[in-house]
């Protein structure tokens, strides 16, 4: 039972139509959905841009 619980928590196993144990991918936004949010928050649009900003600011 503990093994199954750990798999649920990690997202390796999911329960269809569950709000607690749904497929991990369902929590993710598509690129099209994320782009305007990133722009509003003044965040870099890609991971490479993020790394470049972090490296240039010493982060």
Task: Write up this protein.
The N and C termini lie far apart (41 Å). The protein is mostly helical and 59 residues long. The longest helix is centred in the last third of the chain and has 11 residues, at 47-57. It is elongated, with a radius of gyration of 17 Å. The protein has one domain. The mean pLDDT is 80. The protein is built from three helices and no strands.
Keywords, separated by commas or semicolons:
3 helices, mainly alpha, 59 residues, 51% helix
What structural class do the secondary elements suggest?
A: mainly alpha
Helix share of residues?
A: 40-55%
Distance between the termini: 41 Å
H and E string: HHH
Strand content: under 5%
The count of strands amounts to: 0
* Total domain modules: 1
Overall pLDDT: 80
Biggest sheet record: none
Globular, elongated, flat, extended or rod-shaped: what is the shape? elongated
Low-confidence blocks of residues: none
What's the SSE blueprint?
Elements: H1 2-10, H2 31-40, H3 47-57
In short:
Helices cover 51% and strands 0% of the residues.
